[in-house]
Amino acid sequence: MTKLPFNNDIAKTIKATSVAQSNISSLKNLPTLYQGEFTLSEVGDTFIDMSNWGKGIVFINGKNIGRFWKTGPQQTLYIPGVWLNKGKNEIIIFDQLNPTVQDKVSTLKTPILDKLVK
Predict the structure, then answer these.
(1) What is the pTM of this model?
(2) Measured in whole angstroms, how far is the alpha carbon of residue 58 from the centre of its chain?
């Protein structure tokens, strides 16, 4: 285990609309916490696509969805519909590598099972 010093120089948080565009580019290649909210009119099982992210962990509504790593083997994480709420939901993503600063998260109806990054 390695303790990460969460201060302004090492790790920063991106909230959906609170970080100025000039500050976002400074987060590249730094451990970064992304936090956002989304609203659903109906719930159901889904998969979150993490194939364009670095290496880290995802939380939905305070529940640990799982770990991801660009090299795989999994490129998607399963989100059970019972862990989603009609209305407001929260997502937190901790990306240790943050090779590309992200501004969106995508979901899929089926998992990616046939693609590995080399």
Answers:
(1) 0.79
(2) 5
